[in-house]
């Protein structure tokens, strides 16, 4: 029987309603399982449990002789550092493997082996080719696409010692020099991950700083894989442009066949969109009013950004979509699919369909998805969902009546187009000029997951509201964007309710020129978690326009509900780029003061970015504002000095 008090664990009214229903029905959810796990192991929470070899586990008590080191002699700082960077290796492997699949699909599309895919954004293809040094003059598009795909695949396993192309060509010269000087620029994605696992094997590296630098190298490999994944996905399916849709469980439709795409890989979900459109008539033929496709997690973000598909839930509340009784099929690809969704499916008529050979759940239906037969496979899955519609149990149907408008689709290119309507000669200066004028204080990029250690969606929404009140321009990706969507912050409603006077004036000025049928949102949705490099492109463009380094820029990041290995990897490359980064859930590093100090202090001295660990949303928002205000103040003072003495802006000062 569920014992969780739902209204204290989430701010989403739809989730509250469904959790009350779960409690009444005796259905367990993630909220119940979290409570049952209390108290959680202190050794694990602080990172002082070592399981690298099978002599252990070694649980370290620094004040107790004999337990102050592992059996092999590893000190607490070695153990904590190794545990931390292995999270980074896991996150980097997830994002880069995603990117590898996209690269192979582009290659096979160019070679004619994936007939259901095509090059949708020709301009993006030419732009990317030029960026990575591929000749385009006089060549066929498919030939160029093949070269781009091969270049991307080389970043995974090339044999030379040159840094990865999708790293060096996307960051400024100062960061390239910094990464070369500190020897953390990855020369190949797979090599960096494999080397890190070797480095942290028992009896290899015991130096915590060296271990952390190995972790940062893998984190930059993660950035590389994410960057090429975003570029190549845009080439295949189109670079996102503004769309208007909706979010929360109210987007489910009792009169239609409801299909949820869940996970992270758009190769499948995009085909499901096409297949659902073609098979609409078959759904109507069995008595439904059509097919209603919805998204969960970052696969949902991918199809929201490009197709306007509504978002049903984010990671933390994924089980609750099944509890509505109208979700006919949940299609999973890879990453962030909780195995518990199958338990919920057993209570309802919903079928869980797995599609990847590396991502299966016992009891689910497996329909292997192959790029060579992509549309055929997608149609098979959609037809399966149509069949499930007839198996519904009317007495179990309960759709919470909550949904909010969402205005999304703000890729980096779309942001530049939007700014360009005000200044076509220098689009990014629209944003930087607003900072120099004091109209807005700076920019905050939100990312991250959901985590049962904190109240679902609460920290993300509260920090965003407070920053907005203080005139901070906000962008977001991933499940944080899902929280904002359900709270109405991805619409003009959020602007009216929470934007400070400067931010509201800035957004309204953009809105007048946007040409959109809907008002611009408080938070600009830039994509899935793999699309965080779109945010990095934004800060790089701002720094180049202002002729400063990224660590001097009034730009911060926040992951209020960080949960996965991917989140740790993303946060690590973000601080290496020079961005102060708030994390609202304490990672397992408190067991070593040295490692904690590296993450929060020494990283600042070396890279300019650092972690701000704070579980209190109000306190975290204040710290982010303080950092933005300090950087903006320094930028203003140094610019005034440069103008006074007719000199260049200082390139080196503490940010």
Summarize the structure.
The chain is of the alpha/beta class.
Key traits:
alpha/beta; Substrate Binding Domain Of Dnak, Chain:A, Domain 2; Rossmann fold; 4 domains; six-stranded parallel β-sheet
Overall outline? globular
Total strand segments = 16
Strand content: 5-15%
The residue ranges in which pLDDT falls below 50 over 5 or more consecutive positions are: 1-6
By DSSP (H or I, 4+ residues per run), the number of helices equals: 26
CATH architecture of the largest domain: 3-Layer(aba) Sandwich
Fraction of helical residues: 40-55%
Q: Outline the biggest β-sheet.
A: 6 strands, parallel
CATH topology call of the largest domain: Rossmann fold
Characterise the protein shown here.
The protein starts with 12 loop residues before the first helix and ends in an 11-residue tail after the last helix. The chain is built from 26 helices and 16 strands. The chain has a 6-stranded parallel β-sheet with strand order 6-5-4-7-8-9, sandwiched between helices. Helix 4 (76-110) runs antiparallel to helix 6 (141-157) and helix 11 packs across helix 16 (374-389). The protein is an alpha/beta fold. Helix 19 links the parallel strand 11 and strand 12 (472-476). 58% of the residues are buried. It has 4 domains: 6-59, no CATH class; 76-237, Substrate Binding Domain Of Dnak, Chain:A, Domain 2 (Up-down Bundle); 249-396, Rossmann fold (3-Layer(aba) Sandwich), CATH 3.40.50.2030; 405-644, Rossmann fold (3-Layer(aba) Sandwich).
């Amino acid at each position: 029987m569920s014992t969780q008090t739902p209204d204290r664990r989430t701010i989403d009214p739809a989730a509250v309603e469904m959790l009350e229903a779960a409690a009444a029905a005796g259905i367990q959810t993630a909220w119940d399982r979290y409570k049952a796990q209390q108290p959680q192991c202190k050794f694990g929470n602080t990172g002082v449990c070592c399981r690298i070899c099978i002599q252990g586990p070694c649980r370290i008590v620094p004040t107790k002789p004999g337990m102050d080191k592992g059996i092999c002699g590893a000190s607490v700082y070695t153990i904590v550092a190794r545990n931390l960077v292995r999270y980074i290796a896991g996150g980097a492997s997830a994002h880069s493997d995603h990117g590898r699949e996209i690269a192979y699909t582009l290659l096979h599309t160019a070679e004619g082996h994936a007939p259901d895919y095509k090059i949708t954004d020709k301009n993006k293809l030419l732009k990317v080719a030029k960026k990575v040094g591929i000749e385009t003059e006089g060549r066929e598009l498919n030939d160029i696409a093949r070269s781009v795909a091969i270049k991307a695949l080389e970043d995974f396993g090339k044999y030379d010692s040159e840094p990865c192309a999708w790293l060096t060509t996307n960051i400024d010269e100062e960061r390239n020099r910094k990464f070369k000087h500190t020897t953390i620029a990855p020369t190949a994605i797979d090599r960096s991950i494999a080397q890190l696992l070797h480095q942290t094997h028992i009896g290899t590296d015991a130096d915590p700083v060296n271990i952390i630098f190995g972790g940062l190298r893998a984190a930059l490999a993660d950035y590389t894989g994410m960057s090429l994944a975003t570029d190549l996905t845009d080439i295949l399916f189109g670079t996102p442009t503004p769309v208007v849709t909706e979010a929360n469980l109210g987007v489910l439709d009792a009169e239609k066949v409801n299909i949820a795409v869940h996970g992270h890989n758009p190769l499948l979900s995009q085909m499901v969109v096409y297949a659902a459109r073609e098979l609409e008539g078959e759904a109507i033929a069995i008595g439904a009013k059509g097919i209603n496709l919805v998204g969960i997690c970052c696969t949902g973000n991918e199809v929201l950004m490009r197709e306007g598909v509504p978002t049903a839930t984010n990671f933390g509340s994924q089980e609750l979509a099944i509890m509505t009784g109208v979700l006919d099929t949940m299609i999973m690809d890879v990453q962030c699919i909780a195995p518990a969704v199958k338990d919920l499916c057993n209570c309802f008529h919903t079928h869980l369909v797995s599609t990847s050979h590396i991502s299966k759940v016992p009891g689910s239906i497996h329909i292997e998805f192959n790029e060579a037969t992509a549309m055929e496979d997608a149609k098979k899955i959609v037809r399966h969902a149509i069949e499930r519609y007839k198996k519904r149990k009317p007495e179990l149907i309960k759709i919470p009546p909550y949904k909010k408008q969402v205005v999304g689709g703000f890729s980096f290119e779309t942001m530049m187009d939007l700014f360009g309507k005000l200044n076509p000669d220098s689009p990014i200066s629209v944003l930087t000029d607003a900072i120099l004028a004091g109209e807005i204080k700076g920019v905050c990029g939100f990312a991250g997951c959901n985590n049962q250690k904190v109240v679902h969606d609460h920290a993300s929404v509260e920090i965003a509201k407070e920053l907005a009140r203080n005139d901070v321009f906000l962008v977001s990706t991933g499940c944080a964007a899902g929280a904002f969507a359900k709270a109405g912050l991805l619409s003009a409603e959020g602007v009216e309710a929470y934007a400070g006077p400067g931010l509201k004036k800035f957004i309204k000025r953009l809105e007048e020129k946007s040409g959109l049928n809907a008002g611009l949102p408080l938070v600009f949705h830039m994509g899935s978690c793999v699309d965080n490099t779109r945010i990095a492109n934004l800060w790089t463009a701002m720094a180049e326009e202002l002729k400063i380094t990224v660590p001097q820029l009034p730009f911060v990041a926040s992951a209020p509900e960080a949960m996965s290995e991917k989140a740790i990897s993303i946060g690590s490359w973000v601080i290496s780029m020079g961005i102060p980064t708030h994390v609202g859930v304490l990672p397992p590093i408190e067991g070593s003061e040295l490692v904690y100090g590296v993450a929060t202090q020494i990283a600042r001295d070396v890279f300019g970015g650092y972690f701000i660990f704070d579980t209190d949303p109000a306190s975290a928002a204040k710290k982010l504002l303080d950092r933005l205000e300090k950087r903006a103040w320094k930028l203003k003072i140094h610019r005034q000095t440069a103008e006074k003495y007719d000199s260049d802006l200082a390139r080196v000062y503490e940010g």
